[in-house]
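Hi U.,

Before I forget, here's the chain from the pilot set. I'm dumping it here mostly so it's searchable later in email.
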Amino acid sequence: MLHRLVGDLMTSAVVSVRQDTGFKDVAERLAKHDITAVPVIDEQGHPVGVVSEADLLRKQESQADPGGHLTAAHLLPAERAKAHALTAEGLMTSPAVTARPQWSVVEAARVMARHHVKRLPVVDDADRMVGIVSRGDLLRVFLRRDVTIYEEITTDVLTRALGLSPGAVTVQVSDGRVTLSGTVPQESLIPVAVRLSESVDGVVDVTSHLRPAPDLTPDT
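Structure:
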């Protein structure tokens, strides 16, 4: 089975800033390109951090309400430092959490969840940035057509991987939800068929109505 990797889904034309890029220039870059965060790279093209809209808003958050209704927010030392920062180096969240082009969608999604980030700069073997992948990019695997999922399960999973004869198992796919019906030679193949079907890109759920083929060996 062929799985789409981070390198297939990432955006290669990445908007980035340098460490010495000024606060206003960072804000203008976000607005111009309609993005919510931008990676910060050093002179060698290595990502060293990310500046998001939330990082920029620390400056507003640290100020008292002009109307006098609210006092200035209590910020932690690190947040206070960002509130007074004038360049991307001071504004950014670092170190940058990165991904590799050869990572699977699952691996990238788990790293995003673990670090509570919405995007990952993608780096090559020399740690130079070659792209960026977002949550939205990863979700594109679920846009695969049902017929494509059907063909991959019937051909790659059932026939090639499990060696089942065509027609032994009926596959139905609707909005990414897969139903498997029919018989398999051994009961132990049922969880394997389900697991491999679940791993196909774009599959949302798998329901199994599989059963082992009856033993036709005559009694002695």
